[in-house]
Amino acid sequence: MSDGGPGVAEQPLLRVSDLRRRFGEHEVLHGLSFEVRPGQAVAVVGPNGSGKSTLLQCVMGIQRPDSGSVTLRGTPLVESDPAVRAEIAAVDDSVDFFPDLSAAEHLGLLAAVHDVPDADAVVRALLGEVGLTDQRNQVPGTLSSGQRRRLALASGFVRPRSLLLLDEPEQRLDGQGIDWLIGRLLDEKAAGGAVLFASHHAGLIEAVADERLEPAGRSS
Amino acid sequence: MRLLTQVRRVGRGRKEPTDWWTLLLAVFVLAGFPVQVTIGLAAGRASGGPAAIPAALTVGVSVLLGAMVLAVAMALGPVRGSPAEYTWVLGGPVDRRSELTPRWVRTLAGTGVLGAAVAAVAAAVGGADPVELGLTVAIGGGLGVALAAAATGLQGTTAQVRRAVQAGTTGVGMVFVGLAVVLIRLGRTPSIPGLVALVGAPFAVLLAVLTVVWGWRTIAALDRVALTAGNALFTAGGAAVLFMDPALLGDVLAQRRFSHLRIQRSRSFPAGRRRGLLTAEWVRAVRNRRAAGVFVSALLVPYASATVVPARWLPAVALLSAVPAVSPFGSGMRKVCQSAALRRMLGGTDSALKMLHLATPAAAAVLFTLFAAPAMPADRWIALALTPIGVLTNLWLRATAKPMEFDGLVADLGFGPAPVQLSWFLIRGVAPLAIVASLQLSI
Question: What percent of chain B has pLDDT over 90?
């Protein structure tokens, strides 16, 4: 992998070494190694079934790789470690909600437990950004799948983090939503945050990614 | 019509045969519990225990049970169309009445037979003569049909109407039980005059006829939404029974319960993990009005039982009734225990998150115990004090259960091979209740 953009730090935040994951006879990840530095965005690309989500889940700690290592700031990444949870904000299909808290309350609760200053204003602004202001008092079960997806994205942005993991964040977003997402991820990089995201959206990858990674083995 | 008949015939031909023997065995085993309770009550009566079950309490419990049956029937349908029928049959120009009538008639017949059987058992336990037995069976059968037919009629109404009926009938049932308990504790035990059974039988049959007419008119107009609304619950319920895991129902029930929740103004939470999460728990508890209703209903059980069972049993009765009373307050804990994604979002350690979410059910368990204390003599309070331990251990073990494993260690204890993990999964919720109930009975 080549070096990232001008704002990229030297020390890697996330290091993945020789990662292997096999499902039966089918090896999805074969000895994958890469690094993500603060201020850098790495896009995981490839066709369906090429191992993008598997890679992200191994990094999140949801799946255990057959071999290889994932370290965060040089320490082996353990999903249940509170320090890891404080540093990583992940948004994938497994994002879950309380059935009896509203959209605004979910974001407010996340802001509260992560000690976000001026939480109410942050939540209000974020709801406006993702277009859920009118749905702020609805519980997740009454939101459409697209609205739930936007709430999930907002849950990743409402809290402090060093590394943002996103699995196909462009899903169910319209053109305006994609533009918002691009702006958000560029801001994330500018603020020194690292981003690892899987995507099929050429425009999003082009605008945000410093590196492209193909789990099948090739990177550019 | 000819095409539909052919489709049904083909479907029947390809249907997996039902394992009726296993089902009958399960019914036989499960039916053993009420039989044992009846035998126990009879033994208690013989050894100078409390008198026969008071008539007022019988009526109150019957009304409450009827309300619960109506609620379940409305939640499931009662007339349902499968997802395949939704797409391939109900979307076409099919006469709903001719399509749905066979299954509706089967449902009515089933509930009628069930109602008659329950009434027959109740009459037999109460020592009714053959005439009274016949009248009671007619009442039970009529009400069984009426409940299913009324639920069908309500299936054609709006969700708001159904919720109002459910709340109203359950409330009336609770008032009946509460009134019966108060009357009995005041020393007044009104009996049911024989005239009631004589008038009740034709009344039940008339009610059944009227509700069947209502249901018959409704099924012709049931739309696809009404016919498939209960499918998710039915499927999850089937899976929960098959795998003996009530947790499989949790998500569907929560979805149904909160899909109509109207929040006027979202709450803010104080900064800090502990304060934020505890406030969210409090908000959820206050918001869940059904939980308060279940709590009060369950609290009636030890008071009602005090008029029927020996005092020595009452702490164990309180323990068992505390389980459904406390369970709704553990919804946050179950969610946190079952969702690793939610724990990742909230941050902190798994154990701290789970313990924080145990606070609300713990408070509910302690309150239930305190409120149940006046139902029994003071010498049973030490045994009663064990109730929160049993309830919370049960809740914790059920919430933290990992998905059922069908492989793993197999132990041969002389009765044939037994899968250890599977066995532990099945008893992990029941075991603490059994242990604590045994302790309560032995103190």
Answer: 37
B344 contact A CB<8A: yes
Which chain A residues are closer than 8 Å to B272 by Cβ? 112-113, 115
The Cα angle at residue B164 between residues B161 and B166, in degrees rounded to 5: 110
Residue B12: partners with Cβ closer than 8 Å, 6 or more residues away:
none
Q: Alpha-carbon distance B266 to A103, whole Å?
A: 8
Please give the distance of CA B121 from its chain centroid, rounded to a whole number. Answer: 20
Residues contacting B36, CB < 8 A, separation 6+: none
Element of type H or E holding B166: helix B159-185
Task: Give me the residue label for tokens 């164990």.
Answer: B316
Residues of B in contact with A109 (CB under 8 A): 269, 276-277, 280, 346
DSSP-assigned beta bridge partners for residue A15 = A35, A71
Range in A181-195, B40-54, B258-272 with the lowest mean pLDDT = B40-54
Two tokens at B31? 């039916």
As a 3-state breakdown, chain A gives helix, strand, coil percent values, each rounded to 5, of 35, 25, 40
Cβ-based neighbour number of residue A6 at 10 Å = 6
> What pairs with residue A163 in β-bridges?
A88, A194
- What pLDDT is attached to residue B49? 45
Query: Which residue matches tokens 């009227």?
Result: B210
CA distance A178 to A203: 9
Alpha-carbon distances, residue A145 vs A149, A180, B188 (angstroms): 6, 18, 58
Q: Is the pTM of this model over 0.90?
A: no
AA identity, residue B418: A
Q: Which of B255, B265, B343 faces A141 most closely, judged by CB atoms?
A: B255
Q: For A38-74, write each residue's pLDDT tens digit.
A: 999 999 999 888 899 999 999 998 889 999 999 999 9
Bridge partners for B308 per DSSP: none
Do residues A32 and A19 lie in contact, with contact meaning Cβ atoms separated by under 8 Å? Answer: yes
Closest by CA to B276, choosing from B220, B347, B218, is B347
Tokens of B343: 């724990």
CA B399, B30, B302 angle in degrees (round to 5)? 65
Q: Cβ separation of A102 and B263 shorter than 8 Å?
A: yes
Q: A166 touching B, CB under 8 A? A: no
Element (H, E) at B298: helix B289-305
Contact A101 B268 (CB under 8 A): no
Specify the 3-state DSSP secondary structure of B443. Answer: coil
Residue A70 pairs with which residues in a beta bridge?
A16
Contact in structure between A51 and A28 (CB atoms under 8 Å): yes
B302-338 pLDDT tens trace: 998 888 888 999 999 999 999 999 999 999 999 999 8
Question: CA torsion, points A179, A183, A186, A192, in degrees to nearest 10?
Answer: -150
- What is the C-alpha separation between B215 and B151, in angstroms, rounded? 8
Of A94, A114, A137, the CB nearest to B263: A137
- Give yes or no for A118 touching B (CB within 8 A): no
d(CA A2, CA B147): 72
The ipTM assigned to this model is 0.90
pLDDT at residue B284, as a whole number = 92
